[in-house]
UniProtKB/TrEMBL annotation:
Keywords recorded for this protein, A-Z: ATP-binding, Kinase, Nucleotide-binding, Phosphoprotein, Transferase, Two-component regulatory system
Main subcellular localisation: membrane
Ranges in coiled-coil conformation: none
Subcellular location: Cell membrane
Enzyme class: transferase
Domain Histidine kinase stretches: 45-261
Record-given protein name: Sensor-like histidine kinase SenX3
Catalytic function, reaction form: ATP + protein L-histidine = ADP + protein N-phospho-L-histidine
Gene Ontology molecular function terms on file: ATP binding
This enzyme's EC code(s): 2.7.13.3
Length: 272
């Protein structure tokens, strides 16, 4: 069959004029197969990740039944059911978000996105968790910047970075969010003084469902999807995300996205 034939042989056997076409077809099929493998992997991971909280909820519900004459135990189990169901709904929401973001797909009708508003929403979303740990979240930098992109996606990316910074920080510390423009791009940096990431894990943290030692921070209820959402948002915008981190010292995530310029706004308004 053709299945096992290396690309090299396939192209060598065709006439020179057609070789580029055949090579393109072979590359296309290889890409298709890779996409299919990633999709299958994703479905398998999703099923596995969903089974855990669903199973825990079932066990807890059974425990509530059995402990019906012990109000304290019932309350304890009910609290854990709340935690598990919050985790489950976050997981489902992120899975939906991630499957909407097709890697490398070009953006549909990008618009001017108000970065100040995005940062404000991201900070507000993490407010309760930050207050619980007495973490101050400080916003600093250039105001009035606009990203050229998709508002929902940019919002999801920045919110995930701020939420992580708060989750992986020690109590009474500071998280700094800075914004600046640089040569046609805007840079959003989120700096924390948290637990940091071991050097050997840095290139894996953007993978779907990857968590650095889940036992280390089980209480944060992470899904392992946040950073892969950030990575996909960067890719669909033609931007990038970089990380600097040192264990025990903190982390800095920098997201670079295309800047929207005032003259582009004028052109958008003028076009029908
Ligand atoms: P999660 O939902 O687990 O936070 P992410 O994809 O957002 O998933 O992050 C993947 C892993 O990277 C996390 O589990 C955590 O171990 C690590 N990580 C992400 N952000 C930070 C940070 N600001 N400080 C320390 N570790 C982080």
């Amino acid at each position: 069959t053709r299945e096992g034939v290396p690309v090299r042989n396939v192209t060598a056997r065709v006439a020179p004029l057609g070789s580029r076409l055949v090579l393109a077809l072979v590359e296309d099929r290889t890409r298709e197969r890779r996409v299919e493998a990633v999709r299958r992997d994703f479905v398998a991971n999703v099923s596995h990740e969903l089974k855990t909280p669903v199973g825990a909820l079932r066990l807890l519900a059974e425990a509530v039944h059995e402990a019906s004459d012990d109000p304290e135990a019932v309350e304890r189990f009910a609290d854990r059911m709340l935690t598990e169901s919050d985790r489950l709904s976050k997981l489902v929401q992120q899975i939906i978000e991630l499957s909407r973001l097709q890697a490398d797909a070009p953006l549909d009708a990008p618009v001017a996105v108000d970065l100040d508003e995005v940062v404000q929403v991201a900070v507000d979303t993490s407010k309760i968790d930050a207050e619980d740990k007495r973490i101050s979240v400080i916003v600093h930098g250039t105001e009035g910047l606009e990203v050229f992109g998709n508002e929902g996606q940019v919002m999801a990316a920045v919110s995930n970075l701020v939420a992580n910074a708060v989750s992986y920080s020690e109590p009474d510390s500071t998280v700094l969010v800075t914004t600046k423009a640089d040569d046609g791009t805007v840079e959003i940096s989120v700096v924390d003084q948290g637990i940091g990431i071991p050097a050997g894990e840095l290139d894996r943290i953007f993978e779907r469902f990857y968590r650095v030692d889940p036992a280390r921070h089980r209480s944060t209820g992470g899904t392992g999807l946040g950073l892969s959402i950030v990575k996909h948002v960067a890719a669909t915008h033609g931007g990038e995300v970089r990380v600097w981190s040192a264990e025990g010292q903190g982390s800095t995530f920098t997201l670079t996205l295309p800047q929207h310029h005032a003259h582009e706004r004028q052109m958008q308004e003028e076009s029908p």
